[in-house]
Structure formats: structure tokens, C-alpha cells
Amino acid sequence: MPELPEVEAARRGIAEQLLGRVCTGYELYRPRLIAASTGLTLDAIVGDPLEDVGRWGKYLWLVFPEVALLVHLKLTGQLVARGSSIPGFAAGHPVPPYDAPLPHKSTALRLDFAPDARLYLTDVRHFARVQLVLPNELPETLAALRLGPDALGPEFTLDALRRGLARRRGTSIKAALLDQTVVAGLGNIYVDESLWFAQLHPQRPVGSLKDGEVARLYEAIRAILAIAVPIGGAKILNGRAVPTVGEFPYVHGRAGQPCPRCGAAIVKRTIAGRGTYFCPRCQPEPTATGAPVAEQASASVPAS
Ligand SMILES: [Zn+2]
Questions:
Q1: What's the predicted TM-score (pTM) here?
Q2: How far is the CA of 197 from the centre of ligand 1 (A)?
Q3: How far from the centroid of its chain's Cα atoms is residue 99's Cα?
Q4: How far is CA 252 from the centre of its chain?
Q5: Is residue 3 annotated as a catalytic residue, yes or no?
Q6: Per residue in 48-107, pLDDT tens?
Q7: Domain covering 4-144 assigned CATH 3.20.190.10 in the classification
Q8: 240: CA distance to ligand 1 center in Å?
Q9: One of 2, 94, 260, 292 is an active-site residue; which one?
């Protein structure tokens, strides 16, 4: 958290409500938010309009004429916009609550936009970072991150997923999907959700996946994002899922609860270093050869 759907919610909010507005000032509450010393400062945005906003994977950027802000919300970053001339929006980590008074004690940055809109970056764990780069250097800065295709973009095709996975044949599918060079934007929540949707055990070695299973996984990722993006992401509070659309999220944050597909109790286990949720019945455990123990009888995905 926040992953692609949450960052995309921020991008859309900024695009719809702040794009084109002139920055009238800022308050940097936590100077360590700003990564690296490029000689650039936020003073360069004051008096200039926000010209562009973009996203690739979990990275978000705001482009002003003289400087671009490359934002990564890391584990607990949150972006909230408020003002009497805009509807406002909130995206990212759910703590502090989206309607909490701002600035919060963990607010790191406030950007002001004419005539009265404010964008707050708040982060209770202080891992979020903003890198200041020259606008014409943004493409090479992004390229240096070596991100794979954005999971929501046209570059993320079944072939692209196959190519990405081919480089990670020795790892578990969970680890491979968390690797941002394979596909950009998925994190712990959406990898768990996609693997459940595709009925693949998170510890399946990538090399053991059949062509049909990779195709099923690709469709599952697209399906999960199609549910999560329009609602701004899954709601996970204190490690527990709060269902929003139908049963979504299906497994993440639901240890001990019944699988929405088959009713078996959802299991939580540390896989690829992350607390991982899966259904022990719909997502059969791999054997020593890497293949699943047994193919499940055709269990259908519940309507959302
Ligand atoms: Zn199940």
C-alpha cells in the first residue's frame, strides 16, 4: 500500500482538479521528503502552472515549467486535495482518516494552487519521497528506474508478462509479480488478489507455470485492476480487509474468513518476505516438481 490503483486515484484527482492551476506557494514540513540534492528547490514551482501529471507503476509525477516532482508514496503515503473551488479527493494510505484535519502531525508537504486549493502529502511512516528533476530530464530519470510495463497501460500485454516472467523462472510467482521490472504497479495486495483470481498458489515456481496458467494470470491481473481502479483501491485497515465492491478484496486481509469462491478458510503465510493470503483449496500447493497437487474442479469466480 499504496499500489497502482491508489496512485492512479491520486493521478486522476490531480488531473481533474489541479491541472492548469498556478502554484501560489508551498510549505515543506519535512525537508527529508525531498530526495537527493540536484540543486533544484520547490521555489521553482511558485508562480507557475501545473502543466502535466503522470503515473507509471507506483510512481507519480507533477510537471511544472521549471521543475518536475517525481513522487513515490512508499508504504504509507497519502495525497489529499481540499479547497472551496474543488470537490477535493483523497488517495493512498487510509491513515490518517481521509477527513482528518490537515496538516496532520505527519504531513510532509502542502502545495497551494490558485485560487484556494491545497494538496497535502501526509505519511505516517515517513518513507515517501519526492525527487526534483528538470522536466526535460524526467524521461531519463524514469528510464533509470527500469520499470516494467505499467499494469494498466497498453504495453502490458500477455506477451510482455511472458517475457517478464521468463527472466524470473527460478522464483515464486509471488516474488516475480512483486518485481517492478516484470510488471509495474502491483504490490502485496493486488498480487494476492490476482493469484487468487487466477487460482494459482503464490509459491508456484514461475518455471512450473503452463502457458494457459500464465494467460489466466494475465486476465486475472486485468480483472482485479478493473475492479480496484474505479474505486480508488482496496480498503485495508489495520491489516483487515473492508469489503467495498461485492466481496473485493477477496483474500488479502481476510485470514480465517471463508474463501468467496469455495468457502475454505483463507490462509496467511509469509511468502517472498511478505504476509501473503491465499485459499488453500482453490490455489493448490505446489509439489516438489513445482506443479500443483491437484487441479481443482472448475470453480467459477464470483460476480463482483
Ligand atoms: Zn477457495
A1: 0.93
A2: 10
A3: 21
A4: 14
A5: yes
A6: 999 999 999 999 999 999 999 999 999 999 999 999 999 999 999 999 999 999 999 999
A7: yes
A8: 18
A9: 2
